[in-house]
Specification:
Blueprint: H1 6-38, H2 43-57, H3 59-67, H4 74-93, H5 102-128, H6 133-139, H7 143-168, H8 185-220
Helix pairs in contact: 1-2, 1-5, 2-4, 3-4, 4-7, 5-6, 5-7, 7-8
Subcellular location: Endoplasmic reticulum membrane; Membrane
Membrane topology: Multi-pass membrane protein
EC number: 4.2.1.134
Length: 221
C-alpha cells in the first residue's frame, strides 16, 4: 500500500498473523481434546468461541488484499473467506441442530490444521524473514488433502442445515415489506451449494499454481 512504510506494514502483518495463529491453535487443541475425551458431538461446543474469533478476523484478509498489503488476489481471497464466514455464522452459529454432526469435526480439523500452518508460515515470514523448508512444504502441500475435506464438510453442513432452515424460516424476508424485496434463506443456501461446483476447481488450480511457483523458487534459492 502506497504511503505505508515497509516496517510498519511488516509489524502489523506479523502481529495479525500471530494473533490469529494462536486463535486457530486453540481451536485445534480444544477440538482434539473434545474428540478424544467425549466424541465428535462435543467438538463444536469446545471450539465455538475461538472459532468465531479466528474465522471472523479473516475478514481483514480481504481488506489486506484490496489495499495491497499482500499479493493474494481479491478473486481468490473473497470467495474463500465469504464461504467460510457463511458456514461459521450462517450455518453453525445460526442452527445449533448441526453442532453434533460428524462433519463439524472434519470441518474444524481441516480448517484449524490448515490455518495453524498458514499463519505460522506468514508470521515467521513477516517477523523474521525466514521460512523453514518443512513449513514451506506443509504450507503448499497439505491443502491437497485438507482443502477437499474442508470443502466436503462445508457443503455437507449446509445441506444438513437445509431442513432446519425450511422449518424455521430463519432469515427469510417475505413480501410485502417496506423494501419491496424478498429473500428465502433456504433457496439462497441451495444456490450457494451450487456455487461450490465452479468455485472448487478455480481455487484448487490457483493453489496448485502457487505451490509450483513457491517450491520451484525454493529449489533455486
Amino acid at each position: 500500500m502506497a504511503g505505508v512504510p515497509s516496517v510498519v506494514r511488516r509489524l502489523y502483518l506479523s502481529i495479525y498473523n500471530w494473533v490469529i495463529f494462536f486463535g486457530w491453535a486453540q481451536v485445534l487443541y480444544f477440538a482434539t481434546l473434545a474428540l478424544l475425551g467425549s466424541g465428535h458431538e462435543t467438538v463444536y461446543a469446545a471450539v465455538e468461541q475461538p472459532l468465531l474469533f479466528a474465522q471472523t478476523a479473516a475478514l481483514m484478509e480481504i481488506l489486506h488484499s484490496v489495499v495491497g498489503f499482500v499479493r493474494s488476489p481479491v478473486s481468490a481471497t473473497l470467495p474463500q473467506i465469504s464461504a467460510r464466514l457463511f458456514v461459521t455464522w450462517g450455518i453453525l452459529w445460526s442452527f445449533p441442530e448441526t453442532h453434533s454432526h460428524v462433519l463439524v469435526t472434519s470441518l474444524v480439523l481441516s480448517w484449524s490444521i490448515t490455518e495453524v500452518i498458514r499463519y505460522s508460515f506468514f508470521g515467521l515470514k513477516e517477523a523474521f524473514g525466514i521460512i523453514p523448508s518443512r513449513l514451506l512444504w506443509l504450507r503448499y502441500s497439505t491443502f491437497m488433502v485438507l482443502y477437499p475435506t474442508g470443502l466436503v464438510s462445508e457443503v455437507g453442513l449446509i445441506y444438513a442445515a437445509l431442513p432446519y432452515m425450511k422449518a424455521s424460516e430463519k432469515y427469510c424476508l417475505r413480501m410485502p415489506n417496506k423494501w419491496n424485496f424478498s429473500l428465502d434463506y433456504y433457496y439462497a443456501s441451495v444456490v450457494l451449494i451450487g456455487l461450490y461446483i465452479p468455485g472448487f476447481p478455480y481455487l484448487f488450480r490457483y493453489m496448485l499454481a502457487q505451490r509450483k511457483k513457491a517450491l520451484s523458487k525454493a529449489k533455486t534459492a
